């Protein structure tokens, strides 16, 4: 599904799977579509990908984070939930592009 989306564009280094880390996306403007990898977290204020998860319970974002606009896309399967907070225990990858500081999932 992600094979036809360019990865590692914009002068940042790609991870071994070809995706771009959340910290790099937060720090460096990247033009065009790409795949971003991080921990999914939605604390009731909207989904975002986080560089890491804090060890609190329920978890909070640790390090850099990038807000997500799902545009009708579904959240990943296998999320953990406590109250209103949902998170992934493993990094997840999403494809899309940054528009006005928000990662729009599935955007052309």
Structure description:
The protein is mainly β. The chain is 6% helix and 42% strand. It has a five-stranded mixed beta barrel. The longest helix has 6 residues, at 22-27. It is globular, with a radius of gyration of 13 Å. Mean pLDDT is 85; it is low at 1-10.
Distance between the ends: 14 Å
- Name the beta content range: 35-45%
Given as residue ranges, the uncertain stretches (5+ residues, pLDDT < 50) are: 1-10
Number of strands: 8
What is the arithmetic mean of pLDDT? 85
- How helix-rich are the residues, as a percent range? under 10%
Overall 3D shape: globular
Query: Helix- and strand-based class?
Result: mainly beta
With strands numbered from the N-terminus, the spatial order across the biggest sheet is: 2-3-4-8-7
Tell me the series of helices and strands, N- to C-terminal. EHEEEEEEE
Report the biggest beta sheet as strand number plus sense, adding barrel if it closes. 5 strands, mixed, barrel
> How many helices in DSSP terms?
1
Gyration radius (Cα, Å) is 13 Å
């Amino acid at each position: 599904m992600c094979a036809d989306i360019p990865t590692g564009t914009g002068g940042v280094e790609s991870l071994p799977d070809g995706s771009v880390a959340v910290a790099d996306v937060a720090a460096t403007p990247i033009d065009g579509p790409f795949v971003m990898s991080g921990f999914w977290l939605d604390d009731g204020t909207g989904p975002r990908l986080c560089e890491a998860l804090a060890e609190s319970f329920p978890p909070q974002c640790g390090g850099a984070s990038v807000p997500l606009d799902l545009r009708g896309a579904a959240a990943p399967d296998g999320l953990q939930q406590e109250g209103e907070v949902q998170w992934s225990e493993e990094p997840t990858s999403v494809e899309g592009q940054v528009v006005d500081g928000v990662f729009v999932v599935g955007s052309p």
